[in-house]
DNA sequence: CCACGGCCTGATTC
DNA sequence: AGAATCAGGCCGT
């Protein structure tokens, strides 16, 4: 077992970030967060100015490098703050949810996660994904902990639709099977999408079954470095209608286009913060 | 192009 | 308690 320190200059709130609806497999245990990155299990603990990383992998340099990318520590934070801070609502959210970060996750896992998220709840997505991992992923044992790796395209392609339904995927099981089959057969590494312009990458993703504009944008934003992606779900649609008269008066139905024109190339960050804002507000109202 | 119903299923609401 | 409704969409008509 190793313990290493991940240093960062700008705030990271683990609780906020890992439960913001970007990632679904982190497990909180007190103030520890346990997750699976590739084939390694890591436990994170907030130390204020840094994060302590406990892991069972021999190559700690590799883990640190992975985490630096995962939390996007090389983003130009000042530029992001300056660009987005011009909008009143986003500025408020940036302040209120300090430490909420965009993640860069594995594209394959993110793709399946957001296909699963369609007309579902975060709790259910977590449940389904954990089921997928336990049924079809490789078992990983680390000391006293045991988790499972996210199944590869091959592992999911081999599963029957019925087996996939057994973990609670419902009508999404067919999408998962078809996508896994296609990716496995063509031996595609989804990272290639990172080198494509946003529009082309989105178009490619939307060619897959079960992937429309919203899911495609989630995959692009949360795993492929496309910060101009702006996932529009019912919450965000509501936010824009309620808070942005300029949007309400719009002549186009293309919400994404409006958002990028309005928020700029970091529109995805704006979405992340606005989503957190509306979700927290609505939780508090129901209390 | 737009509008609409159907889709699995667990949780929440009435 | 049991039935309706909803939940971070997408697809076919």
Could you characterize what this model shows?
The protein is α+β, with helices and mostly antiparallel strands and 287 residues long. 51% of the residues lie in helices and 13% in strands. The protein has helices at 14-18, 60-70, 77-84, 88-96, 107-116, 122-136, 153-158, 161-165, 172-186, 198-206, 213-223, 234-243, 245-248, 255-263, 267-285, and strands spanning 2-7, 27-29, 32-37, 40-46, 50-55, 139-142, 145-148. Strands 1-5-4-3-2 form a five-stranded antiparallel β-sheet, with helices on one face. Strands 6-7 form a two-stranded antiparallel sheet. Helix 5 packs antiparallel against helix 11 (213-223) and helix 10 (198-206) crosses helix 11. The radius of gyration is 19 Å and the shape is globular. The termini are far apart. The mean pLDDT is 94. It binds a DNA duplex (14 and 13 nucleotides) through helix 6, helix 9, helix 11 and helix 12.
Uncertain runs are none
- Physical arrangement of strands within the biggest beta sheet: 1-5-4-3-2
Radius of gyration: 19 Å
- The helix/strand order is EHEEEEHHHHHEEHHHHHHHHH
Q: Rough shape?
A: globular
What composes the largest sheet?
Answer: 5 strands, antiparallel
> Could you say which structural class the secondary elements and strand pairing correspond to?
alpha+beta
* Portion in strands: 5-15%
Number of helices: 15
Number of strands: 7
Which bin fits the share of residues in helices? 40-55%
Mean pLDDT, all residues: 94
Distance between the termini: 42 Å
